[in-house]
Amino acid sequence: MKINKKTEKILRYILGVLFAFAALNAFGGGYYGLAGAEGVPLEWLEGSPFDSYFIPSLFLLIVMGGSFLTASIANFAGWKRARLISMLTALLAFVWIAVQVSIIGYISWMQPATVIFGVIVLAVAWFSPRM
Length: 131
Hints:
With 131 residues, the chain is an all-alpha fold. It is 73% helix and 0% strand.
């Protein structure tokens, strides 16, 4: 599919904004969890390998937040591999949510919102040109 430069730039900026928003969300959620996750029941972790939210929060903050931030920067900066980074990061978000739901079940509107985010990112990245 041939896309003109203006459309390419718009698609990159859409991805950049989506990933920046996701990074902000992951950093906030990770920080909240590391700060004690006040108001979040520990019962949700029953049957999981975790006895606190420390490790999942650290993963959310560093791995997810870092991946989202990297994908955002890649798109805004027009990195050669921005499309690939976007797709891999969206797949990572799917894995994160799949593991989360398999461990604690469906507990928040954020879980399907993350899946929808991943679908949108994959669709936009798919139609972005290979740089």
